[in-house]
Write a structure and sequence with these properties.
Elements: H1 2-23, H2 27-32, H3 50-70, H4 73-91, H5 97-117
Helix pairs in contact: 1-3, 1-5, 3-4, 4-5
């Protein structure tokens, strides 16, 4: 039964990732989460910092999905931070789409292992 639970948690984390990175991420977010991007005059007074809010909001969606799948807010916070760092690197063009997705998948495997240890 433990295996079924593990696979269910991993499955739901992957579903959450697909939703967060593809279905729920708008074109505006894709461009707006990059450092230095100014996708919209946000009336923020510091438009050059809007990217950080967009990236953080995107990563919170992923963190929420992991928290829901695992029942652990701590793992959700870990996903939020890890996703932020990974996407920041992709936005800086330190690596491309495939490495980005591989790193996200690796995180899900780590969270699944942590979930087993809880």
């Amino acid at each position: 039964m433990l295996e079924a639970g593990l696979f269910a948690v991993l499955f739901w984390m992957l579903v959450g990732h697909a939703l967060g990175d593809f279905a729920l991420q708008t074109e505006w977010m894709v461009h707006g989460k990059s450092p230095g991007a100014r996708p919209l005059r946000a009336l923020a007074g510091r438009d050059e910092l809007v990217w950080a809010h967009v990236l953080t909001a995107h990563c919170l969606i992923h963190g929420g999905a992991v928290a829901l799948a695992t029942g652990s807010v701590l793992l959700g916070v870990a996903e939020t931070v890890a996703h932020w760092i990974i996407d920041f690197g992709k936005c800086r063009r330190w690596y491309g789409f495939h490495v980005d997705q591989f790193l996200h998948l690796g995180c899900k495997l780590v969270w699944a292992a942590c979930w087993l240890a809880l």
